[in-house]
Design a protein that fits this description.
Blueprint: E1 3-6, H1 10-18, E2 22-24, H2 30-35, E3 44-47, E4 57-59, E5 63-67, H3 72-77, H4 79-84, H5 86-94, H6 98-103, H7 106-112, H8 120-125, E6 129-133, E7 138-142, H9 143-146, E8 147-149, E9 152-153, E10 160-167, E11 173-180, E12 191-199, E13 205-213, E14 220-222, H10 235-248, H11 259-281, H12 290-293
Helix pairs in contact: 10-11
Bound molecules: flavin-adenine dinucleotide.
Length: 300
């Protein structure tokens, strides 16, 4: 039997967590998972969807702050996210169906800790940190520190994720997220890749980062080494990125794909993500999500 209550304030939610309650945001992992028999509902659950402090998307000169309760439906159309942090919008637009996106939240996606989460790789390439709060502490955790295994985070039981923070974007920057999928809706990534690119004045790559979805126990940052930074974007550098991404991946085989297929296709996704991010960095508008705009993934 589960005891359910609705927090009316952040303090109330934090006190409930300190007493052993588990937060529920949109419930699309927690509640749907329990109905599917993945795990029973916790004994005490507290809804956090009425807490104003957990909403909002705010950008100042230095930092973007996205409240943990911001939904995928909000992220995919928000002008700041779609315009400057496009990889997050690409990812949010691919999540589930409209009903999943309307209630599913960024905080829930991150704290559920699935290696197939779509917003994870974008958050990594954009340098995000999770803001974790208790009744008496507040800290920033890098995504790398936060995700420690499939469905497992390093957050303590009494820590609530209140926001995701990341640096403001430099000039001439773009980002993109693409995923391989077998059908359009209600599907999780077979593999996926996010990329962030900053162009130098001469058009070469000044900075680049890539992170991978569903090819390791957690979202995986790729060490690009000297494969692309300082070089022009061309077939040779894109092929080098694809090779490094494939070599970095440590995928499993399951019903949906073999490890070999995942290793190959994640390289293809990394290459496409870098190419799309560079086009956006160069000022081109590519509609959200890149998957649909460029015909990547399933047709229907
Ligand atoms: C049909 C369907 C399709 C889906 N498709 C996709 C998809 O394509 N891509 C994808 O990435 N996901 C997908 N999902 C998974 C899910 O929708 C997302 O992970 C969503 O973002 C979860 O958010 P939520 O608010 O519903 O989380 P909840 O279910 O409320 O919570 C998830 C977990 O995080 C914890 N939690 C929630 N918020 C916080 C917080 N602020 N601080 C600390 N802990 C917290 C909860 O206790 C729980 O353990 C799908 C789910 C369904 C049902």
């Amino acid at each position: 039997m589960t005891t359910f209550s609705i927090a009316q304030s952040l303090d109330e939610a934090l006190e409930a967590l300190a007493s052993g309650a588990r937060p529920v945001a949109g419930g699309t992992d927690l509640v749907v998972g329990s109905r599917q028999g993945k795990a029973p509902l916790p004994a005490t659950v507290i809804a956090i969807d009425r807490i104003d402090e957990l909403g909002g998307i705010n950008l100042d000169d230095n930092r973007l702050r996205i409240g943990a309760m911001v939904t995928h439906a909000q992220l995919m159309v928000d002008p700041i996210i779609a315009g400057q942090f496009s990889a997050i919008a690409d990812a949010a637009a691919l999540v589930g169906s409209p009903s999943t996106r309307n209630v599913g939240t960024l905080g829930g996606n991150v704290m559920n800790g699935s290696p197939a989460m779509d917003t994870g790789a974008p958050l990594v390439v954009l340098g995000a940190t999770a803001e974790l709060q208790t009744t008496s502490t507040s800290r920033q955790s890098t995504m790398d520190e936060l995700w420690i295994g499939p469905g497992t985070t390093s957050a303590a039981d009494d820590e609530l994720c209140v926001a995701l923070n990341m640096p403001a974007r430099p000039a001439n920057s773009g980002s993109a997220y693409v995923r391989l999928e077998y059908r359009r809706a209600m599907e999780i990534a077979v593999v996926g890749a996010a990329a962030s690119v900053t162009l130098a004045d001469d058009g070469t790559i000044a900075e680049a980062s890539v992170a991978l979805t569903a090819v390791a126990p957690t979202i995986l940052a790729v060490d690009l080494g000297d494969s692309i930074v300082g070089k022009p974007l061309n077939d040779a550098t894109l092929a080098a990125v694809a090779d490094v991404a494939s070599e970095t991946a440590t995928p499993i085989s399951d019903l949906r794909a073999t490890d070999r297929y995942r290793r190959h296709t994640v390289g293809v996704m990394a290459r496409r993500a870098i190419a799309a991010a560079a086009r956006r960095a160069d000022g081109e508008t590519i509609a959200i999500p890149v998957n649909r705009a460029l015909g990547i993934g399933a047709n229907s």
